[in-house]
Amino acid sequence: MATQTLTRPALSSTSAAKLRQPRKKMTAGRAAVLAVAAILAVLWLVPFAWATATAFKSEADAAAPKISWIPPSGFTADAFVKVFQDGNIPLWTWNSLYTSAAITVITLAISALVAYALSRIDFRGKKVLMTVIIASIMIPPPVLIIPLFYQMVALHMIDTSWAIILPQVIHPAMVFVLKKFFDQIPRELEEAAVMDGASRMRIFTQIILPLSRPILAAVAIFVFISAWNNFLWPFISTNDGSILTLPVGLQTIKSAYGIQYAQNMASALLAALPLILVFLFFQRQIIKGVATTGLAGT
Amino acid sequence: MSSLATSESAEQAPSLPGRSSRNPSQTNQPGKSPTSTAQSSPRRSRDNLNGWGFAAPFLAFFLVFLVWPLLYGLYMSLTGKSLTGANDSLIGLANYAEALADADMWHSLGNTLYFTVISTVPLVLVALVMAALVNVGLPAQWLWRLSYFAPYLLASTVVSLFFSWMYNPQLGLINDSLAKIGLPKVAWLNDPNVAMWAIVIATLWWTVGFNFLLYLAAMQNIPAQHYEAASLDGAGAWRQFFSITLPQLTPTTVMIVLLQILASLKIFDQVYQMTAGGPSGSTRPVVEYIFETGFTGYRLGYSAAISYIFFGLIVAVSVMQFFITRRRSA
Q1: Does some domain include residue A107?
Q2: Which fold has domain B97-329?
Q3: In Å, how far is A86's CA from the nearest CA of chain B?
Q4: For chain A, how many structural domains are there in total?
Q5: How many helical (H) and strand (E) elements, i.e. helices and strands, does chain A have?
Q6: Which of residues 183-212 of A touch B (CB under 8 A)?
Q7: Domain residues for A159?
Q8: Distance from C-alpha of A279 to C-alpha of A274, rounded to nearest angstrom
Q9: Is the pLDDT of residue A132 over 90?
Q10: Contact indicator for B267, B115 with CB cutoff of 8 Å
Q11: What percent of chain A has pLDDT over 70?
């Protein structure tokens, strides 16, 4: 149902109209709603705020038994400096960025191709293929870690970025999100091209893909976020400090820094920063993307 | 997961009268089929080639990194395979027999189920409340979405660092706040009776924004006319919420609950990072037990067997979901 906000402009405009209603007067009920919403928002922002306050303290103030938001000896960026000096955060950020980007690009390419075939081409065995892909949505990734690890050892890929990237490009649920969108593109748009003798690939790249930008963006956002934040598989498949992704690297910091709370929080904030920044700039697209793909499974 | 349901409706899409009536050239449709059957055989073989050609890249990854490990894992579960390479021989169902008699396996499975039950309820209810509040038409929509959804963008490790620090018994913000209002301190992550709830609170903070967005999108798709009619009849806000919003959201709620159950069953990251399964195994989920048997205990075969028992549980839940959503859409 969420998918249809993208494909049915009529619906999204009604909801927009609802938002544009003249502001209702502030009744007791609305004040209560606002108050509850505000309390929840504050509760949800406290962990960020407390982490930020801690990260800008000296280690001594952060570990002081008397807890205060404003440290006695003033705020300092020492923790960030230290983390940058001896830490690998920039390297891990880069590792996360290129592995997640590679996963997103490969996933989009292979999923869109197979989704186009399932949507438009009448080939022998299509039903079977469809059933197999549907069934595979059920397979939980944790079930595969043991044999995948063994397989990666055999392929000599352990401790390479390939080990992180390759097993993460299969998103059967996203194939169906794409297929469903392709199904709604009118076939008439392709017929002229077919008459002209255009190849399937040409139709796919020049007609279908340009019309599918919103759904491609939604799938890309979903895949990128899950790859960026994935912990279990990168954690298992890599030991080498130079190729660790951000979430896995952060886990090693936690044990290394131990009770250096300011540095712990500075590292966590630096790790959180990229996606939060991206979100601030592309809030609308990300929210739409998650709402579109979300019900298709995680 | 819902593609199980959505794909069905998608398949039927072309034959839906409502859909094709929007195409102005709909009248072409009947005329098309004779021509296509006339050139049937060369076209068919070209379609076969194209179809499998387009599917090939996905299929290659699918076979190598999904189907093969799935089958190989099944084979491994029937062997005594270990990371030290000791015993590769087939030992039949011995691993499964051992797992079913393994108290630690049952304990971890129980922890996973316990977490699933006590996390799903707040993760759905709080999301519903948040969406209902925002949907009333509060000013500064972006602010609410940002605050409720932002944690979802964090890696599990970041969430664990935040909460381990706030849960700190002596220096933590939470115990300090409790002390200020005269409540006793709690040993959040060190008390076997509390630790799982501490994990649930962190998880709620982290992922409720996702369910919130799904609910909000669904609420905004409820036609405004429903509410206008109810207003004319004099129904108040509460009445409208319970007699219009909630019933209209039923399919969404079913999907969110089922997706949440499947997500909660896979719990591992935050537990491993915050308590490492402790204190005394009270939070260790089955995925952590799989991980530890395989990589700390080196028993890959046994670990694969437990993976398959866990897989069986997930399949059971998914099949249940399939039948529930099927009945709903039928």
Answers
A1: yes
A2: MetI-like fold (1.10.3720)
A3: 19
A4: 2
A5: 18, 0
A6: 183-184, 186, 188, 191, 200, 204
A7: 91-294
A8: 9
A9: yes
A10: yes
A11: 88
